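Appendix B, record 7
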Amino acid sequence: MPRKIQLTLNQMEAGQTGTVVQVPGGPGFIGRRGRGFMRHQSAGFAGRRLEALGIRPGMKVTKVSSMLFRGPVTLRVGNAQVAIGFGMANRIIVEVDVAT
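Structure tokens (predicted):
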């Protein structure tokens, strides 16, 4: 019987499919360059950008590939392929089935 575990997109294997559980955003999210970097944007900018790409809670995503040394992660969301940065992929939590 498969059980569900939660991983970040970076921890998933290529070809593995899961359901997005948590996406960064909201007032607590600040980009990696500090507070001043996103001063001109609202606090939920990253969350809205991911939502525009189709990455939001409840959506099924499949990891297509990832690059070495903190490179981008490529995902299949619906019928589209999107690439997101390593840091952002490390913040997105996905629930996957694992055979026991």
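Remarks on this record: The radius of gyration is 14 Å. The chain has one domain: 3-98.
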